[in-house]
Amino acid sequence: MASVDSGSGDQVSLNVMPMLDIFSILILFLLMSFSSDPVSHDLNTGVELPQSVTLLSLDEVPTIVISKNQIFVNDNPIVTLKEGSSALEEKAAHELDTEIEKIAESGKKFTKDEAGLQTLTFEIDKTKKFQLLKRVMLSAQQAEYVRFKLMVEKQSS
Amino acid sequence: MSRKKKHKVQQAGGSVELNVMPFIDIFSLLCTFLLFSAVFVSIGIIEVQAPFLTNAAPSEPANKKPEEKIKDVTINIDLAKKDISLRSIETGEKEKVLSFSNDKSGVLELHRELRKVKEKFPKAEKATLFTEEDVDYADLIMVVDAIKFYEFSATKAGSHEPASAASADKPLFPKIIMGDIIL
Question: What pTM did the predictor assign?
Answer without folding.
Answer: 0.75
